[in-house]
Amino acid sequence: MHVDIDGGRLLERLEALAEIGPITGASGERGSARLALTDADRDGRDLVLGWMRDLGLDVSIDAIGNVIAVMGEGCGHRSGRAPVLCGSHIDTVATGGRFDGNLGVLAGLEVIESVLAAGLELRHPLGVGFFTDEEGARFAPDMLGSLVYAGGMTVEQAHDIRAADPGGPGPTVRDELERIGYLGSSPCPGSPPHAFVELHVEQGPVLEAEGLRIGAVTGVQGISWTRVTFTGQSNHAGTTPMSMRRDPAAALARIAVFVNDLADRFGAPQVATVGRIELHPNLVNVVPSRATFTVDLRNTDEVVLCRAEEELAAELARVAERHGVTVETECLARFEPVAFDERIVSRVEAAAAARGLSVRRMPSGAGHDAQMLARMCPSGMVFVPSIGGVSHNPAELTEDADLVAGCQVMADVMLDLADGGDW
Amino acid sequence: MHVDIDGGRLLERLEALAEIGPITGASGERGSARLALTDADRDGRDLVLGWMRDLGLDVSIDAIGNVIAVMGEGCGHRSGRAPVLCGSHIDTVATGGRFDGNLGVLAGLEVIESVLAAGLELRHPLGVGFFTDEEGARFAPDMLGSLVYAGGMTVEQAHDIRAADPGGPGPTVRDELERIGYLGSSPCPGSPPHAFVELHVEQGPVLEAEGLRIGAVTGVQGISWTRVTFTGQSNHAGTTPMSMRRDPAAALARIAVFVNDLADRFGAPQVATVGRIELHPNLVNVVPSRATFTVDLRNTDEVVLCRAEEELAAELARVAERHGVTVETECLARFEPVAFDERIVSRVEAAAAARGLSVRRMPSGAGHDAQMLARMCPSGMVFVPSIGGVSHNPAELTEDADLVAGCQVMADVMLDLADGGDW
User: Fold this and answer.
1) For A113, which of A165, A347, A415, A416 is 20 to 30 Å away at the CA?
2) pLDDT at A421 over 80
3) Where are the domains of chain B?
4) How far is B134 from chain A (nearest CA, A)?
5) Which pLDDT value is given to residue B423?
């Protein structure tokens, strides 16, 4: 069972949604700023919710503001079975692009509209949803809505989270949901879909660099974020012999080199990044008293990720000893890798191939709602190329043809799943 | 010819001057803030100038605000010979201690007062001066007054320098000299003294660590400050494979390790410091686009310092190539090492030994007015211990006994020089 989606309609909806909370990039690129549960987010939600209702879908809003729209009586679907759900998010970071999140939601609408227009009879209904606060830019943690949907956090806990607004803690999630009219009545956790598929831009450079059109996402890398503080002794850079220094910046540099070399030594998919460094007092002629920095380690293999963490811990101790500094570490984030369901991954691969689209299996380096849904049902993702790997920036760009191709592959996969029996 | 100085009087003057622009350190320590040519600096100048006049010294103020007080008719000295001059500075950094600079000036007053009281007949008169803007905290470069005094910069150039005041460039040196009443009429360059001696706190940990009382300063290290900017590509720390990164933070870390190892490899007195680091955008999960940092290299041997600079330049190119980043460098400061006159260094050593004070020869890691005076006349310095090497901080501390001992050694050296013939 197949349907050809309408690429022009998808692109039009992407354009229309991008007009809400419009921002302009450094070179005039058009992006969007719709931080979670702000007025701009509400306006974006209202627009997409209207489109869902226009299609006659059964729309539910749950207690964390997730919006799920499923084919039901209004669309002539009466199976009562769990839906083949797709979706993503429509909130953005402050410097958001047009596609991150939005593509997965609007592609879902497009698939459903095409299927309804074709009058196909499905065993499982199709559905599309958008999850609250995926970006985590206003309320931590990120992927909050899908986390609560999948039962990973209670709705009460989530309601009490306060906005990290400029100038100090802002209102709570519950306050803001109520204010913008999205404090729904559907319960959390939500009911498990039959399957979940998320189309998303890669946010990395791999597909473009390899000249490929589609990524069949095998899972999401595990993430380990550590904040390290080395404390030594502030000293005059001219008058203090090397042998009498306790230099936390030298210690930091040795660790940054160590993790960079570790990633090379472990090989792909291990990545390691020191993205943030603060020295104190940060003056040219003063040996710093303190160096604070972050180490971001990621791997798809939990065992290997643990080994990287162990090696880092051992090296931190060795380097602290060598430079006579003390070391404190704080875990800022730790997520185990998530493996997507092989039955979804292989269907994505097969659907792309059947459409003549070049495809590779690949992990996701970034977090996505699909990794939360994977706790409830067989889940997977479809990636399309991000030009230059640019993300979280108005300059984020995916070619129109790739946006449409990704939507088509998702349509094929969803129909395949909707046509199948129970797992 | 000898005189015993009055330690109590020296300590009282240090206390009195410290009361002008008083600040308090983190643990309640008393420091001073008298940035060059501010009202507080004027008040400090007025106090010291009053003391100079009280002693009957001939006081001159030159066009850059340096104040030089020499024994003349008013003190019964009629040789007309060039003075044996001592001195330092009384401006401070914003977080200044009580001794940096002030000690050398007030010790000079004490030596002269003691010599006058003893009625000694000297071949050369004694003099004491304080030089404008030694710290460079408000007007760059540092050691400005002594630089102009020694003919290293024209007074016109110096007059046009603007204050680096908060909120943007402030008034010029000339405006501020005029405003505080210290735009003098004596010409610059000044007339060469017979010799110049500067007593100063070490601002480093060596004397205290070695249990020594006096440093006979052999010279001032050469200084090479380079600001390095590596520019790469900002990328998502999760989605960008190591092989596709252009990571300026990794490049920075390799350079910081390289210069730390270089100092160990070259051995003392080579020192190397990375004291300032700025990443952009400085986020835990983003490979930075830019890393800016400083490298401070110092050595007493110009040839070795040049070799260190050459090795750094070669390594910058290698590391930039390795990490696919571009490198820009800017020289922030470059001073050749200054060697003090052996005749002064040996006199300091002998004077300390004669007083039963433990002494070692040592270079200065910090810059001092004496290095400018060394362009005009035989010059040298006397160091006393800084507890913990703490400097530019209200917690800066030298034991009273060491302050007095340093002053006594300077008195002995000055009398020895004043009693001698022409060079």
Assistant:
1) A347
2) no
3) 7-220+338-419, 222-335
4) 16
5) 84
> Which chain B residues contact residue A288 at CB under 8 A?
275
What number does CATH give the domain A7-220+337-419? 3.40.630.10
Which chain A positions have a beta carbon within 8 Å of B288's beta carbon?
A: 275
Question: CA of A222, closest CA in chain B: separation in Å?
Answer: 10
| A-B contacts (CB, under 8 Å) | 211
Read off the pLDDT band of A24 (50, 70, 90). Answer: very high
Grade residue A313 by pLDDT with cuts at 50, 70 and 90.
Answer: very high
Q: Check residue B215 and give its pLDDT.
A: 98
Of A268, A273, A286, nearest to B237 by CB-CB distance is A273
Report ipTM for this prediction.
0.87
Query: What is the pLDDT, as a whole number, of residue B17?
Result: 98
Domain boundaries B7-220+338-419, CATH class: alpha beta
Which CATH architecture group holds B222-335? 2-Layer Sandwich (3.30)
**Can you list the residues of chain B whose pLDDT is less than 50?**
none
Q: Which chain B residues are Cβ-neighbours of A240 within 8 angstroms?
A: 204-205, 271, 365, 389
According to the model, what pLDDT value does residue A178 have?
98
Residue B366's pLDDT is: 92
CA of B52: how far to CAs of A64, A366, B19, B67, B195, in Å? Answer: 78, 71, 18, 10, 20
Shortest CB distance from B276 goes to which of A235, A243, A283? A283
